[in-house]
């Protein structure tokens, strides 16, 4: 059985200027870079679960004059060999520094430090029935 999955990590960050005088000037921006997709595989012996066995990684750069927060949303199926049936659970996980966020709880938002920060993203999708062999594309939004 062949299962192939593509994880799209999309990013948007809530930012606020800590120096209001900077509004009249060029607005500094948060930037994502060095995106590595990670490895997604079915859980050994359980074709109902797809999970990242090696995390997706990326870097976020926050200028010193910005205050930025990052939030993690649950993964969503973009397209696949079969639709997610009712009862499917989809959870995203984000780690950076001492922060661990999960999309399935109230701990899904955190402040980002200024400068460069490496982010580690994981996901897990569990269906009540086995995945049909094929390609699955999930989107995980930060």
By DSSP (H or I, 4+ residues per run), the number of helices equals 0
Order of helices and strands: EEEEEEEEEEEEE
Unreliable sequence segments: 1-7, 10-23
Shape: elongated
Strand-pairing-aware structural class = mainly beta
Largest β sheet strand count, sense and barrel closure: 7 strands, antiparallel
What is the mean predicted local confidence, pLDDT? Answer: 82
The proportion of strand residues reads over 45%
Tell me roughly what share of residues is in helical segments.
under 10%
Rg: 17 Å
Instruction: Please count the beta strands (DSSP E, at least 2 residues each).
Output: 13
Distance between termini? 31 Å
Characterization of the model:
The protein is an all-beta fold and 142 residues long. The chain has no helices and 13 strands. Strands 3, 4, 5, 6, 9, 10 and 12 form a 7-stranded antiparallel beta sheet that branches. The protein has a 3-stranded mixed beta sheet with strand order 1-13-8, with no helix packed on it. It is elongated and about 50 Å long. It starts with a strand and ends with a strand. The relative contact order is 0.32.
Topology, please?
Elements: E1 3-10, E2 14-17, E3 31-36, E4 39-43, E5 46-54, E6 56-62, E7 66-71, E8 76-80, E9 89-96, E10 99-102, E11 109-112, E12 115-126, E13 134-141
Parallel strand pairs: 1-13
Antiparallel strand pairs: 2-7, 3-6, 4-5, 5-12, 6-12, 7-11, 8-13, 9-10, 9-12
Descriptive keywords:
elongated, three-stranded mixed beta sheet, mainly beta, 142 residues, seven-stranded antiparallel beta sheet
């Amino acid at each position: 059985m062949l299962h192939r999955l593509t994880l799209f990590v999309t990013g948007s960050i809530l930012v606020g200027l800590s120096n209001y005088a900077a509004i009249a000037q060029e607005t500094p921006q948060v930037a994502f870079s060095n995106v590595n997709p990670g490895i997604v595989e079915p859980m050994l012996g359980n074709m109902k679960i797809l999970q990242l066995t090696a995390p997706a990684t990326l870097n976020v750069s926050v200028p010193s004059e910005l205050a930025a927060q990052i939030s993690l949303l649950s993964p969503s199926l973009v397209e696949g060999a079969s639709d997610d049936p009712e009862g499917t659970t989809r959870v995203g996980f984000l780690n950076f520094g001492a922060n661990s966020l999960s999309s399935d709880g109230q701990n899904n938002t955190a402040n980002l430090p200024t400068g460069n920060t490496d982010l580690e993203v994981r996901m897990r999708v569990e269906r009540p029935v086995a995945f049909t062999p094929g390609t699955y594309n999930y989107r995980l939004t930060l």
